[in-house]
Design a protein that fits this description.
By secondary structure, the chain is mainly beta. The chain has three helices and 28 strands. It is 6% helix and 40% strand. The longest helix is centred in the C-terminal third of the chain and has 14 residues. It is globular. It starts with a strand and ends with a strand.
Length: 359
């Protein structure tokens, strides 16, 4: 399966564009990976770069990986970091966190990927955490790799993901080179053609597209053309849980998402506190003074119920479901924070989009 990207403006009057391959109707998870934005090379002078002000997350982790430029990260866990090329910046939201991401003034070109993975039930209400890691450079004939999460080519990342096993790596191939790394039969894999067309198991994968391989795949061969190529390789054990993604929250049902939104709005001073939350500790933490936090999208018009089983398969097959409930706002500000599918039309989000599949 090869997934086509869709263009999403990241907000602002000039709107830096990202190319999103996860989530979408035909595939919303690869292991626990649930979100993939690819951007650049972006001329910051023309687009304004990345200007994503304070916003929340629950139940997920963000992975920032750059090829060019620098981004200043600031979060309510007390972490401030300059995201640099070739260095992993991992933020685990746990029960709740807020952060902002702004490209640095000395950045002229911005180029990278922004990834999320969903936290499993066992760890999703844990403490938030921020971690940086500079992967070693691994070389093979015609190949250079950096493994930022998991294990590949004898390189092991020490970073704890708090999930079932995951893989994340950057691989650069010389012109005409190929790599056939060892695979795990319990993993599903995805290959992003980051800067050029590639072939995955002899299937053409155009630039910015994402190739998907299901569990049980015993061969994963990535081949570059005459220009060479850089790819992002993702993998993981399937997340055997139903999740709901809405705006920047991941939960398990409608009521949980509604509570996350309600508490975020109250903690940011955007709505009055709800009586049901009177004895609950803050979810999203304090933040240094600066630009105002982004208001959450209006609540979903339709109740986010568990998606129905679709497609063929035995009744006993394990089920993984994602119900994506987009928000209604279509303003540039809210387009900056739409962490799931968006409608390119002027009316913005009007209906939820259901995604479900058998493992």
């Amino acid at each position: 399966m090869v997934l086509e990207p869709r263009e999403v403006p990241l907000g602002g009057p000039r709107a830096m564009t990202v190319h999103r391959t996860l989530p979408q109707r035909s595939r919303s998870l690869v292991g626990a990976w649930c979100f993939l934005d690819h951007y650049g090379p972006d001329d910051v002078a023309a687009t304004g770069g990345m200007q994503v002000s304070r916003h929340p997350h629950t139940g997920l982790a963000t992975v920032s990986w750059l090829f060019a430029g620098r981004i200043d990260h600031l979060d309510s866990g007390g972490n401030a970091a300059a995201v640099a090329p070739g260095e992993l910046n991992l933020m685990i939201a746990g029960a709740g966190i807020t952060h902002q991401e702004i490209s640095r003034p000395d950045t002229s070109v911005l180029h990278g990927v922004q990834l999320w993975y969903a936290m499993p039930q066992a760890t999703r209400f844990g403490d938030n955490r921020f971690e940086r890691y500079l992967p070693e450079v691994v070389t093979r004939p015609g190949v250079t790799a950096r493994v930022f999460l998991g294990e590949l080519l004898g390189s092991v990342s020490p970073v704890r993901t708090e999930t079932p096993p995951l893989l994340g790596a950057e691989i650069v191939l010389d012109p005409g080179a190929a790599i056939c790394p060892e695979t795990r039969p319990d993993f599903e894999y995805a290959v992003l053609a980051e800067n050029a067309d590639v072939q995955v198991n002899d299937v053409p994968v155009p630039h910015r597209h994402l190739a998907y391989l299901p569990t049980g795949s015993d061969v994963l061969e990535i081949s570059a053309g005459e220009r060479g190529a850089r790819v992002i390789l993702l993998g993981g054990v399937p997340l055997q849980e139903s999740i709901v993604m809405w705006w920047n929250f991941i939960g398990r049902d409608h009521d949980e998402i509604a509570q996350f939104r309600r508490r975020y709005q109250a903690e940011m001073g955007l709505d009055p506190p709800h009586p049901d939350d009177a004895d609950k500790p803050p979810l999203f933490g304090s933040f240094p003074s600066g630009p105002a936090a982004a208001p959450a999208c209006a609540g979903p018009a339709e109740r986010a119920a568990a998606a129905a089983r679709v497609g063929p398969g035995p009744a006993t097959a394990p089920l993984r479901e994602v119900l994506v409930v987009p928000c209604r706002h279509s303003s540039p500000l809210h387009r900056s924070f739409q962490g799931v599918c968006r409608d390119a039309g002027a009316r913005g989000f009007m209906r939820h989009r259901r995604l479900a599949w058998l493992a």
